[in-house]
Write a structure and sequence with these properties.
This protein has 111 residues and is mainly α. It is built from three helices and no strands. The two termini are 22 Å apart.
Amino acid sequence: MDTEVARERLLQLQQELRTSIEETTSRMERGVYSDDPAGGSDFGDRGAHEQQAAEDEGVLDGVRRRLNSVEDALRRIDEGTYGISVVSGEPIPEERLEALPDAATLVGEEL
C-alpha cells in the first residue's frame, strides 16, 4: 500500500477514534444512560444503567488500544518501516494492510 494513502486512512481513523473516545467519555461523565430525565429510580433501570456503563468502559478500552495501534502505524510510516512485521521483519501483505491499515504483524504472529 502506498504510504501516503495509508497515512491518510490512518489519520482519518485516528480522528474517528478520538471522537469516539471523547463522546463515550463525555456520556460516562454525565451518567447519560436513561431516557428518563429524572435518572430513573427503578432498581432494574439502575442495574441496566450500570451494565451500560460497564460496557462503555470496555468499549472505551478497546478504542484506546486501537488508537494506540493507529498512532504506532503512523510512527512506522515516519520511520520508513510501515508494512513490515514488527515480529518477523517480513513484508505484510497488501491485502492485510488494506483491510487493517494499522496491522503491525503477519496473520498468525503475536506481539
